């Protein structure tokens, strides 16, 4: 029996005990204070870790095992409740550190706003960055009822930061007319409703580029992800999202970071959403971290 | 600050404050007392209204905004608990009034029996009426264990009233052999299991006709609508139901009224069913009310 | 049939349609963005209204009927998601207006921080104000991890504003040692664990004074209020809370406003918490508004 | 292995296979179509039977074992959905048969209206009948929005039938002023809020009389019975209800029948309400059937 | 009124009262003690029976009615809690008896390990047996953390017993690399991810052979079967599983027994999983029992 | 930022990072495979840790802070699914190690059978051991349907091991007649139904003795602990259990170890049971570890 170390049960399955030796770092961003509808995604990272013990370590899709990737579970970034400004700054700083150490950042939300400071940090390090964005919502507002830092604005912010033509959104089925119009006028790619087919067309045009992948779990139909803030009918299946991750993994883009956000466990009694998220993260680790 | 009016928070999102100026009227029929299996659809209309605040007002499917349609939320029709006879009469009277005022009736159930008096009233006003019916169940019984007014009989009643050949059912995957036989013998259309493909074939044959659309939410697979009285495997996705509404909206039929019934919130912890229903109603408003 | 007015179903039962003629105003403060544990109280006011239709209008405890009090349901104060500073200011302004019009304010939370601007506004109007506070928690922190506006600070704020000796807390079973010490050193009353007995002793000493009553629903044991952010064992029963409200109603204090906060419906499948809150509000209306 | 009989798993635990040899008969009345608030008690009897397998067969309260009483589980009375008139008649007929055969009737609801025809049948057979009634609600309305057969009227009906002075209600905490007044004016006993203490005072006055006991599970506080149609704060504990059953069992009254109604499983995820009901029924069998 | 028999309500709908006259026997195997993740499938059989009352008796897929098949519901096999060795033996003995009497065995799990003794018994009686296996998981481990009797081993056991080349698995999306490798090396068929298309290719090659069909409900996507021990994204729809059953029913194989396992009701508030399972069982009865 | 250690978020709040420096060790025993009714307590320890972040670190009951006790969270003992014999042996060995190192063992269940090997190990080290046992059930069976290792037998086992007169059970409200008789005949103390009053009488008689405290959470009424395997009406409140822990803490007995078992999170949507358990464990740490 070995009692010489603090118990560390609730880490993402098979995560490596040593930061320095790891290629990737998985971390939570437990923030949900700007959401306009149903809060609760602050508990997403903890629940995803908890249910990850139910995962097989081998992917029959990619024929690769979690043993083949070294990743460190760094826990949740401590964020100040109700203060989005400080939270955003803390996340950016945190990612700057990870990137300085040469780690692949794999984030778990929290609301989608957390992706904004991550992408900003990634854009500092990687030239010619493109964003691949899976979501039910455009997230292209300039503000939400006057608040610039809102779960409705992260894609607008990164689009303005790196140029709208470098942002590719898939599966969008909800937004204001102004958002769709802005995207069109500014050369940003939006695939309405569809995901896998347009993705397969876009990927070759991104060959060789640095790409950050951000997945809002609500790109899935509510049938496949009931545990999220905004459940919006007409989404894709979990099979299609898996296939999309595999399409990216099998393409010639250079994935430099990724996240999966908006898992809110309290709305999902069966915990299928957290379980599905943990499987997607496994595939992202196995497919994106070479 | 304005305190000069009664609070009216729980109305369907963006509904118009004035009845006279409105083209359409949305109303609830909170009745569930004849159901043979799981009750609870009486709370469907209230919950659909409540979650409608999570809806975007713009439809990227139809490129139309709720601002472009004027509809009044008239609340729920007060119905006497446990008395289907009086309830049926009250609904018919109510719809008569709406139609006299030239309004487009958009109803929310409640059990499916509520559609019978609505369709009867609509048939009085509109000649040459056809019914487009989405459902898992035939609803063609003459009675249920001796009770003629039952959630299993509304389509039989309207079929006998306007002629079976004017009724078109889609997605049917449950019923007694006698019901399927009756439909066949009497020239009523039933698409077993399938919805969108046969609908697209039928719509041109209905060009120019007055059509009432009745949607039992259980036409969806239980994965997409767990919150309903009878969950029956093998249904369609919410994407296919959206596409079906859009197919009708884009056809040459003249939709003169519609309803969506059988949302029973208590069986759906994630509230995806009520959210999905509210989105379907938005698309019906934007697609059917010209 | 009458279609001349917007539907107004989801108001607190029997609320009066006219603001000017009403003695009291009931309103929601749907804010939960500073909570450190489980969010969701933003939906408390809407759900309390919804279930209030299940209430009898007569109180056999007070032998009084809701017909005997005129109160207006003003809906929810629109608050900016994720911005506690603006929210606090908006609430204070709102209450200032109500008080200027001579209304009795009866608020529904939302997290407990919302009570701070209400009490501040009430203290501007009423001299010699005392606070009666029911809660599991002291809420006496100066800040929570650096944030001064937190669900853990409202009682500290009002205590410093009107003087700690004017604040009476009952049922407290959770807090930091520093909070209990601060209360003791500054002459603030805290009844640890107990509610009804110490309340009955205190009330005569407050005779003739203006009193504001603030109830955090978690003063109840989790058995009686599972639907709240922080469930903390060892609380009182709903019978004891009812008796406490009745003790205040039957005393010689002059209640000038009240609130009930921290109902978070998503954690309570049976909806007993919202139902219990609606009954408490009925008793507060009948007992406090003369 | 024995395959010679149809499986009969879902019967109340330890029920006797032979009707003729049984002293008591346990039966369900799965009706909920007149309830004004939350339906679902139609599934009460089935769920109570299902969870009864978790019961110990021995009562340490009464020092008696289920082996010492012979009772037959007759299943649910088949009732026509949505037709209270026929349902009421069928129940009365059914009880007439049981009583003719000399059985002790022990009923499971369903809504409280089902007790009316049972009590009527019992009053035909037993002279000088008294009713002991545990409930949160008076149930003394003459009608509910015009409907005479309603879950709000059964106690009024039996009170008028056998004389109000023969009806003893305990634990009542909800009703219209008119109902309380009617009871007072007509000499009917109502113990407001309290149960065990007044019951102990009343029981000696009923010595030697025939008594029917009807328990609405909502006499319990929602903490103890969340799975019921109307959850109303301020009720008693399950310990007090157990003690009340034991007080009757230990008194000199002659219990000639009993029921327990209003268990609605869907509102109680933990199934504590059905489990509690099954324990109460065990104590009723062991305490009332001599 | 008929009181001459014990109530037998909770049997699978329309099951026949006489064992001897029945062609098929439906029985439960309420065991879940070796599962490594979420237990609860012991309650699967009882809940499937309970919800089967919501089924129509006629299948529009097969144009056949439950009246046309005689099946006896034998209840659950009593199994010793926590003892897999004895449980396995008891099941095998039980099936031996059924087969000796010439019955078609239709089992309900319980965890998947229960299928092992059933298949073993079937293999004793029927020469040249093939297994058709629907599952998310390979279930091909030799042991689970040292325990040979585990829910992860049943397919390995039967494959070794009758020869791996006689086992056909469909829909597999989870397992260890070693399991997939073992299958490949030993000539066992595994269709990864896909079900209906490869099944249609395989069926003609099995023409005339005796086939046992075992369905782990988790072959369905979690959207379609949230109520199971291991929810694993990327599964098939209930439509595809229905079509697969119909493909077997319409083929030239001779189905000699079947089961459906791993329904765990507590994880599925809407009860869609149990409802879906009951429909699958109806189709298996109508399609497999000639 | 510090990335030099593996994340260790899901430990019991404020647990100490170093085993050697700790006075007490908290550990989980995630076993539930012998339960006869509802499984799920294997997830109790993980959920209790998870919700412990909502605890205050200071106890106003004991005026002591978690900073004043050093305890190490050793995680869950890895136990072989479905094998009670090996599990029991592993637990005993584990506790032997802890005791050899002079640690105070504080265990979290899991089913109650896990307490048997713990108590056996404790009895090896400490002379003159007495057991204080809080439970709804006697747990005095010799076997359960032939299985000697069952959740119904642990108290019988320890009673036979250290002598029945050294075992004191409180709050018992369920069991077989034989169990109560055995206790009486053998001089074992059982307080039926009551807890705090008899405990206060017994404690002085145990002054100076070594005592192990085992708490089955179902000693609480289902209202206070719905999340457990067997919910049995008529239990005590969480206030009384807190007071009982404090009574032991304030007495002259020498507590040498303790556990709290049978928390099964899936049956408790509000998570009040896990939250209550975490508070009880805090009080046990602060009250028992000197």
UniProtKB/TrEMBL annotation, chains A, B, C, D, E, F:
Pfam families in UniProt: Arginase (PF00491)
Keyword Transport part of the UniProt annotation: no
Binding residue positions for Mn(2+): 112, 135, 137, 139, 216, 218
Keyword Lyase: no
UniProt-listed Enzyme Commission number(s): 3.5.3.11
Pathway: Amine and polyamine biosynthesis; putrescine biosynthesis via agmatine pathway; putrescine from agmatine: step 1/1
InterPro entries associated with the record: Agmatinase-rel, Ureohydrolase, Ureohydrolase_dom_sf, Ureohydrolase_Mn_BS
Highest taxon of source: Bacteria
Cofactor requirements of the protein: Mn(2+)
Cofactor note: Binds 2 manganese ions per subunit.
Swiss-Prot/TrEMBL catalytic activity: agmatine + H2O = urea + putrescine
PANTHER family per record: ARGINASE/AGMATINASE (PTHR11358), GUANIDINO ACID HYDROLASE, MITOCHONDRIAL (PTHR11358:SF26)
Family per similarity comment: Belongs to the arginase family. Agmatinase subfamily.
Protein's name in the database: Agmatinase
Organism expressing this protein natively: Jeotgalibacillus alimentarius
Lineage: Bacteria, Bacillati, Bacillota, Bacilli, Bacillales
């Amino acid at each position: 029996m070995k009692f010489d170390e603090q118990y560390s049960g609730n880490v993402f399955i098979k995560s490596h005990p040593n930061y320095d030796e790891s290629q990737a770092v998985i971390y939570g961003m437990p923030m949900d204070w700007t959401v306009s509808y149903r809060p609760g995604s602050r508990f997403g990272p903890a629940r995803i870790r908890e249910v990850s013990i139910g995962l097989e370590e081998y992917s029959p899709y990619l024929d690769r095992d979690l043993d083949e990737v070294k990743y460190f579970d760094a826990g949740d970034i401590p964020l100040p409740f109700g203060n989005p400004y400080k939270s955003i700054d803390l996340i950016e700083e945190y990612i700057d550190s990870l990137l300085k150490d040469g780690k692949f950042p794999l984030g778990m939300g929290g609301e989608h706003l957390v992706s904004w400071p991550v992408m900003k940090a990634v854009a500092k390090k990687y030239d010619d960055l493109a964003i691949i964005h899976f979501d039910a919502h455009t997230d292209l507002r300039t503000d939400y009822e006057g608040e610039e830092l809102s779960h409705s604005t992260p894609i607008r912010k990164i689009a303005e930061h790196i140029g709208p033509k470098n942002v590719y959104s898939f599966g969008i089925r909800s937004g204001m007319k102004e958002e769709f119009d802005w995207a069109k006028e500014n050369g940003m790619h939006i695939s309405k409703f569809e995901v896998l087919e347009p993705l397969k067309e876009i990927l070759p045009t991104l060959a060789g580029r640095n790409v950050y992948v951000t997945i809002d779990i609500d790109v899935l139909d509510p049938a496949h992800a009931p545990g999220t803030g905004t459940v919006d009918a007409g989404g894709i299946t979990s099979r299609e999202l898996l296939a999309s991750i595999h399409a990216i993994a099998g393409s010639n883009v250079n994935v430099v970071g990724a996240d999966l956000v908006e898992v809110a466990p309290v709305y999902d009694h069966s915990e299928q959403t957290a379980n599905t998220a943990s499987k997607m993260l496994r595939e992202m680790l196995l497919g994106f971290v070479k």
